[in-house]
Design a protein that fits this description.
The chain is an alpha+beta fold. The chain is built from one helix and four strands; from the N terminus they run E-H-E-E-E. The chain has a two-stranded parallel sheet with strand order 1-2. A two-stranded antiparallel sheet has the order 3-4. It has one helix spanning about 15-30, and strands spanning about 5-10, 40-45, 50-55, 55. The chain has a single domain (about 5-55), classed as Macrophage Migration Inhibitory Factor (2-Layer Sandwich), CATH 3.30.429.
């Protein structure tokens, strides 16, 4: 069973996450020839100040 863990900035709308999860699920089921029920997608939302790029925290 594929488990996809997606880490994003907090605050994305549910509709956007629904679309991302649907597309990821579609792609994995197509490539791996698996039923949709076998694919799990989880979002981890991180506050911008806790997300560092090149040693610099993100901004709200």
């Amino acid at each position: 069973m594929p488990f996809v863990n997606i880490t994003i900035y907090e605050g994305h709308a549910k509709e956007r996450k629904d679309e991302i999860a649907r597309r990821v699920t579609d792609t994995i089921t197509e490539v791996c020839k698996l039923p949709r029920e076998a694919v799990w997608v989880v979002f981890n939302e991180v506050t911008p100040p806790d997300w560092y790029v090149a040693g610099t925290p993100g901004k709200k």
